[in-house]
Amino acid sequence: MTPCNRPQLQRLLDESLPEKAERDLAEHLAACPDCQSALESLAGEKQWWAEASTRLGKSSARPPSSSRSTGHSSAELEATGRSNALSEDDDAFHFARDFAVDFLDPSDNSGMLGRLGEYEIVDVIGRGGMGIVLKGYQKELNRFVAVKVLAPHLATSGAARRRFAREAQATAAIVHPHVMAIHSVQPDVKLPYLVMPFVGCESLQERLDRNGPLDVKDILRIGMQTALGLAAAHSQGLVHRDVKPANILLETSVDRVLLTDFGLARAVDDATLTRTGVIAGTPQYMSPEQANGDPVDHRSDLFSLGGVFYAMCTGRPPFRAETTFGVLRRIREASPRPIREINPDIPEWLERIVIRLLAKDATDRIDSAEKVAILMEGCLAHLQQPTSPLPTQLDQWAPRPTVHAIDSPRLSPRLTMTMWLRLVIGAGGLGLLILLVFNLRDPRPRVVPAPSQSAQTSENRPEVGTENVPKGNLQAGNSPLDWNSLDIELQGVDQALESMESNSQDIWGPATP
Amino acid sequence: MWEPETRPSLMVRLRAPQDQQAWTEFVSIYQPLILRVMRGRGLQEADAQDVAQQVVLVVTKAVERWQPDGKEASFRRWLFSIAHRLALRFIQRGYPKSGVGGTDMLNLLDSLPDSPSDVSDEFNDEYRNEVFRWAADRVRGEFRETTWQAFWRTCVLNESIADVADLLGMSTGSIYVARSRIIARLRVIVEQFEADHGT
Description:
The structure holds two protein chains of two kinds. Chain A is an alpha+beta fold. Chain A has 20 helices and nine strands. Chain A has four domains: 6-51, no CATH class; 74-197, 2-Layer Sandwich (Phosphorylase Kinase, domain 1), CATH 3.30.200; 203-395, Transferase(Phosphotransferase) domain 1 (Transferase(Phosphotransferase), domain 1), CATH 1.10.510; 398-507, no CATH class. In chain A, a hairpin with a 4-residue loop joins strand 3 (131-138) and strand 4. In chain A, helix 13 (298-314) packs antiparallel against helix 16. Chain A is globular and about 65 Å long. In chain B, helix 2 (17-40) packs antiparallel against helix 3 (45-65). The longest helix of chain B is centred in the C-terminal third of the chain and has 26 residues, at 172-197. The model of chain B is unreliable at 1-6 and 114-119 (pLDDT under 50).
């Protein structure tokens, strides 16, 4: 066992230790009571721990006037695991749960919570800002179902109820392997609900909470399936409006994506925005247009999908702040912390895709879910067969498009200088080219502003040595290139290469990523 | 995270973000607090909701008349101070069933005890419970759900660390880390709250 290291404990608390040191320290803690007490005193005095424990236990206790007992304290229910579930917790839930329990009809079976129409309700399996999910049993068909009830504080608005019904019915019309099916909708009762198959699954959010960032392969696969589900909905004119990891279910054992909670978000918006002027639910995956209250189309879902990718890559949402106000502001204005800074295992091309999806202006995003799915498929193929190239669409996006071998006089004259540089340096990748030109002009690496991208830039990392650089015209100070025109030139080159490539496949050799 | 009811006009009135935040915190804390206390006294759900809403309404009207005087934390302290006294008054001595009009409201506010030392210990205790709950809601959002569960189960539900480690698939060591981080963070938030309100 590693020896005690007290000064590290404060850094551990502040989350400022590098990952490996943190893991080692955690391992040490498991076996060292002295360090355990030391850590705990750093966090707070014994009195504080006791007060927190008592008060938090109390403050979530069920109020005494409620009419039915489920045998669980709310503190315990808060800790319950879930499936088919949503992840937000809030005060409305405590109320809603009591209310749901109160409004269920009594069941003949004493083990059940109650009855709802033809369903015996077994348990509350989850809750979100918008509704409660119950596990039900359908006697006639001898199967379990998930019953989702719209939250009471939303169900009083007539407009919200009508919307809920319309959207649920529209969603029920989407039959797709990656969209959660809806068995039936009951819009006309006091608390509207819909019935879905009970599927053993966990949400993507739960997976991320459990395991942290995913492998690239899983990211691509889950991203692809989600995009396919979205494409199915978009083709029916439905915008999801609440794409987030909690709404992406992963069916256990087959790990298949099931997109859920379609269009229901719109019912939420109606009830909450117009009435209160304040947005309900955590908006971490909302698009800028949603954050601004502007009209929304399918491209808004693509922004949110970008946020989901970000979460899969890093384990956390792209925009975080302490208040809803703060999150919305960041969505509108700020760039998320670069993915590769948080998780260096993520390939640069994947980061580029995510950045593209997270463009503030909808017109800058990849414009259809279908394209995203196809892109994912191409990237997966590349992963499985590293000698096959990445999809060429990726090349269109600065700052570091893929380089193809070049040899043609058909390119326009203004590009010749760049081409010549490339011929000389060889097909070592454009990143190499930029780096080398950096090195020649200025010994310190410099950052090239990425055109029409976020304000954040990243330093280029040296990939190979400079031994490929021939002397001669490339002496420092002699280069005729300036940064802005270099960028534009390189983009121009790649566009030209693309059109050439599509014209004549056999001229070019294999691309080097 | 359920955002409390807020009139847009109020939000316009409170232009400074820290004032808006103070308002949001006020509603997040006082509404559930009053609900709990009233339910605890045997009130029916609808009536308990009523009281809670009345407090918010009266305070809203008071805020609409409030004049900023340029001092930093003054709105927040003022808000929480009258909220506290008003809530206590409603709880102790009953509340108007119908809406409170302009002059009525002024009279009501005038009739409130001046110094907070008059307030009952029980209410204060409930209030502090509510502050902790509010702080927990905020802190929870800053951590992964499993981290939160590790803390909640071992510190609040008093389950054994070994059992929770098994349940969550976490190592024992990481549970120690999780709990300590969350306790530390809770302490920061509650202490900040105390500093802001002088409670």
